[in-house]
């Protein structure tokens, strides 16, 4: 889930700790009946198989894109002090690192990374802006 716009594991957050905070789940990504670009990209890029991990993957991916747009670096960001320009500047290594806490028992990781890059406006083939 997204708690005040930041990624959080819903199973580890006490309800009382979420009182008065903005809670968004995968159901909140679609707007007015239209799929969120991440949801569309997951379908187009085969970012899901059994679907068990998909809600968490989608919420985490939404958080990843927001973090990148805020310039937050990751462990693999080349210049941690400078951060990252925007989500469109993500590459495969950045996405894999940022999504590494989400496990997929089917192994759809390649499709998931491709989907996140596509939704970010980056090139899924190479990562980073075309």
TrEMBL record:
Annotated ranges, domain [2Fe-2S]-binding: 25-116
Top-level taxon: Bacteria
Transmembrane portions of the chain: none
Pfam families membership: Fer2_2 (PF01799)
Name of this protein: Xanthine dehydrogenase YagT iron-sulfur-binding subunit
GO MF annotation: an example: 2 iron, 2 sulfur cluster binding
Biological classification of the source: Bacteria, Bacillati, Actinomycetota, Actinomycetes, Pseudonocardiales
InterPro entries attached to this UniProt entry: 2Fe-2S-bd, 2Fe-2S-bd_dom_sf, 2Fe-2S_ferredoxin-like_sf, Aldehyde_Oxdr_Iron-Sulfur
